[in-house]
Prior knowledge:
Layout: H1 3-7, H2 18-24, E1 30-33, E2 37-41, E3 47-52, E4 57-61, E5 68-74, E6 88-96, E7 103-112, E8 119-127, H3 136-142, H4 146-157, H5 161-174, H6 176-189, H7 194-205, H8 209-215, H9 231-239, H10 248-288
Antiparallel strand pairs: 1-8, 2-3, 4-5, 5-6, 6-7, 7-8
Helix pairs in contact: 3-10, 4-5, 5-10, 6-7, 6-10, 7-8, 9-10
Amino acid sequence: MNDQVKSEVHEKPSPIPFSEFLESVPPGTVTLISDLTKIRIYPNGGYAGDVLVTPEIQLHCQTDSCNGIRFFRLIDAKAPDIPENTFHYFYITYACSNCRKTEKTFSLAAQKDKKSNSGKCYKFGENPEYGPPTAARLIKLIGPDRELFLKGRRCENQGLGIGAFVYYRRVVEDQKNRILDEIIKVSEKVGAPIESIKVLENAKIETQFSKALANVKDAIPQTLLINGHNPLTLLHSALSDGLHLRSDEHCLEIASSIRVVLAELSERLAQALKDEAELNKALSRLMTKR
């Protein structure tokens, strides 16, 4: 591996299985692998070299028939040879064993240890990109800023805290009214006080973002509270933290918290509207039988 790449990465002290590396290690890190290679044997029994192990791995499959963690298996015809004295660069592609539609391609460099099946592996990238999938309900909530949010997600996955924070803050600020509209829908469905709904409506008019979120701290329906806390107040607190003199690590923690709160809010909004729709349907059925 060239000196430029070496200068950008660090080695982990403890070897891990190759399956764990593929499943859990983000791009940009040289990792010690405990079971990188296995011996290839010719049909006549002779030694044919050391090749990459290709274990089953567990990844999230987003197809409608799967929509969860599934086993993925290598679909390449032949595992690559892994040398001892230099890094070998290659791609490998896995496919979902259940639906056989979803594929994941890894761009890697690997080097075998001498007289051992262990070695080092570097992940340049993945397609689709590294990281857990973003829930469809969250994507629906942020609407037009989907691409900005996903850029923030990529920054978060790569440990770029300042970048993730900036993207997430812009998404929340730009989609303030869209988020408030969904909260108003729930408020109306659950019969919230007119005064609370009016406060939410007024927050949409307020041009100062921080003031708008601060004004609605007592206007959120109970069903949308997260462990007793107003999600908009939590977002306001996180977004008010700012970037000045903050470390990238601190910004990464705050960005992750913003994403988690947004995701939980999107789930609670969807569930509240679903519950109300199911209740209305049940009432309608009972009324028609009278």
